Amino acid sequence: MPPLRGTGTDPEAEHPEYAGQYRLEARLGAGGMGVVHLARSASGLRLAVKVVHQQYASDPEFRARFRQEVGAARRVSGAFTASVVDADPDAVRPWMATLHVPGPTLADQVKRNGPLAPAELRRLTAGLAEALRDIHRAGVIHRDLKPSNVLLSDSGPKVIDFGISRPYDSDLRTETGKLIGSPPYMAPEQFQRPREVGPAADVFALGAVLVHAATGRGPFDSDSPYLVAYQVVHDEADLAGVPEDLVPLIGRCLTKDPAGRPTPDEIMATLRPPSYDAAAFVPSQRRPVTGGGESGGGESGVDGSGGDAEAVTHAGAGAAARSRKEAASGGGRRRWLAATAALLVMGAGGVWAVGAGLGPGGSGGTGEPDGPKGVAEAFSPWRTPLRTAGSATPVCSPAEGFADGSGSGSGSDSDSGSGSDSDSDSDSGSGSGSGSGEARSGRFSGLYCAAGGAGVSRLDPSDGRVLWSHRAPAHGPSVGVVAVSGGLVHTAVPGGKLRAYDPVKGEQVWDADLSPYLGTPFDAGDTLLLVAEDGTTEALDSATGVSLWRHPLAGHQRPDYALYDDRTGLAYAFEHSAYGSTTLVTAVDAATGHTAWQRRLDGMLTPVGTSDGALVLTTMNGDAQTVGLVRYEPGSRHVVRLDLPFRMNEPEVVVGGDTAYLLAHGGTLVAADIRPDGGETVRWQLETAAGRTSAPVLGAGDRLYFSAADGRLLAVDTERGRLLGQTGPRLRNGRLTYSSALPAPVAAGRTVFGTAPDGSVFAVDGQDPARW
């Protein structure tokens, strides 16, 4: 049911213990503008509900500011803030409900226990820098970062209270004559030029907060706020007691000139490995949501310091000449990765030999050992740098379909090939050994990766060596995808060329012009589906490029393809109505073009998976937030709708069995039961402390994997909702890059392949995430 408005005879108007539909159970604290209460949602989630004081509720300016606070909190809701669940800024007593974050404020922690230890201080520095990065990326300036607005949770610091925050494009100005902020943590420009305050003011406040955390006092200390204001503008910060190694960084944060302060990215880069021992907060406990109750589960041995500290030797580093059967066995049924997932410059450049133009100095070609010593026998982590352009993160797709075997390649780890630009099979010179790619237990026969500046390459999944690569042209379109279908490797550039390559030799087999089509092809088994400008769908045989069928889908103007079911051979097209009130869903036989069934369903829906013959879809509200799941049974035409307990921002979804896993922007991961049995929808919820993430993928052993924007690869136990481990960040030149989408990792048996903004492709042991 929708939240009740606080007017008339509704419960909220008569009884102050209600905020909308939420009964307020206990008082958590109070501030100058309102009181924060503990409450629970209908599903049992603990909420923190802020209710505005009555005297401010009648002030139009305050209501406008509170409405802005709600909007700002929603924009930045995620891993580093308390996610907004519900709000009503227009109620008689305006209120906002967020997820309750257990843990003290930084102010309380320091007051009770004294200054933080150096390691704790570094973790706090890293966490708050990452929080400010995501807040600023959302277009928001907090303007009141202080110890009492930092919650210390088991998944890292959470920044709260956006009561005086301001979007970059806000028309709500600071009122003349009023001091907006908390003087000990305000930047000089907030006193001098309040209308020109930018993100750098939050960095100044971060420096002041860190001094307080390190010493128990601020960098500018006085009982008089006027004297503090003078000191902030004119005096040097008092950094006595701050750990020596952090003094330069915190001093830069407290520079008077906003232009001289570091950005959050630069702060994180300063703390990066090996000195950055706080890549992310890994909690000691997780509390799965089960029927509203909470149960803790301990975990240990998770190290976020990354895998570059120690080198390991290659196992099975040599490679025999690959059988040409790989060309036919690689017809895996994989979806095309998002066209914006990575930068890829495609062209007609010739095949070039192993190592040519790869890695630092152009001498790559052999995967670098990566990861700690002592991992399970017969597995060696590796890392291969690709020379990429700009902020390109490589995107990879595997060739699969061969039977498991017990053999493994062996031989030398020497660089293969002479670097000549011949079209010969570059595998022939790749070393000596025994066994073919198909004989390697649990391994794919090939890993194909693309990135801007590096073109498309084939990597040996056992050791990361580049077996062949297509040179990228110096100029041309830079966005594309790579996928394996019909036994060939395909690359595509929207509006450019679709090209198919022999997976073993790297020779181009056929190409097609994509200029008449929208976006890039949708991979539907051994068929590639393309949608023309007029909405017509054309299907190409992915092995030959021959057109299999071409016609419009009945009822559709411009359909989107979102899902392919390998078991049934059905591709699912969908299209929202003009106002988003309904969605037309069509199941199409990808090979023949015949419509298996079609149904118009209520709501703005997107197909995300199948479960026991049923189609699973997400449903969005008018703000494009995911608010629930829909399960549709084509045989009975039965529809079941499952509400989520809170709204999720742009979640990526993967369905496994009777569970849908939703990973939202901000790092909130939810496991939702999609069985229509009337039980609780949410099985568990986890805050992953990852601001931006890739789509999640399911792997062996009840594992779920996804990548973070800083290059981390994370593993989660899908049964208990626990973070099992994560790699360290892999930044490009110490800076966090930003792209419109992140490539998902590849899970292949015990191996998980990840990609990172430093241009590298790496492999880790999926059986031992705690040692990543």
Automatic annotation (TrEMBL):
What is the name of the protein in this document? Answer: Serine/threonine-protein kinase
* Domain Protein kinase: start-end pairs: 22-276
CDD domains xref list: STKc_PknB_like
| Tagged with keyword Chloroplast | no
Quote the biased-composition stretches of kind Gly residues, using this chain's numbering. 290-307
This protein's species is: Streptomyces pulveraceus
Q: Does the keyword Kinase apply?
A: yes
Q: What class of enzyme is it?
A: transferase
Q: Which residues bind ATP?
A: K50
Where do Low complexity bias regions lie?
308-321, 411-421
What's an example of a GO molecular-function annotation for this chain? protein serine/threonine kinase activity
User: Which UniProt keyword terms apply here?
Assistant: ATP-binding, Kinase, Nucleotide-binding, Transferase
